[in-house]
Amino acid sequence: MFASKTLQRIACVSIPAVSAGAFAYQVNADTTITTVTTTTSTVTKTETIADAPVDVNYPPHGIAPNVQKLEGWIQVGCGDKPYNCPEKGATFGTDGKCPDKMPDLSKHSSFMAECMTEEIYDKLKNRRLVVVSGQV
Fold this sequence. Notes:
The protein is an alpha+beta fold. The protein has a domain at 2-36. It contains four helices and two strands; from the N terminus they run ββαααα. It has helices spanning 65-68, 72-76, 111-115, 118-124, and strands spanning 2-16, 22-36. A hairpin with a 5-residue loop joins strand 1 and strand 2. The protein starts with a strand and ends in a 12-residue tail after the last helix. Mean pLDDT is 74; it is low at 1-25.
């Protein structure tokens, strides 16, 4: 779509002269202003992509061959399932619920084990993470 308008204007131009001052000229000018409006269309194409092949050496379908060579208690912690290893005393919160009393962390060597107090534990033990449509 195009729209055109013609405007009549009078311009006063002052040109400095080298010797005797300035000269003034009146000029009639026709100016054409053209407005261009562009319309854009967007087409969205949806297609179904075949599922990627299942890799049995990667969670949730399995664990890597190098991990399969390790001891069982290590393998349990490398999959997609909650870590539950009675052999190592790691049975903490596997059902998603924390015990009322804070477990003994004295034999653990992590920042969390060093900094966790009963006061912090009591404050956080009943909190739940809500996941909405895959977003945390």
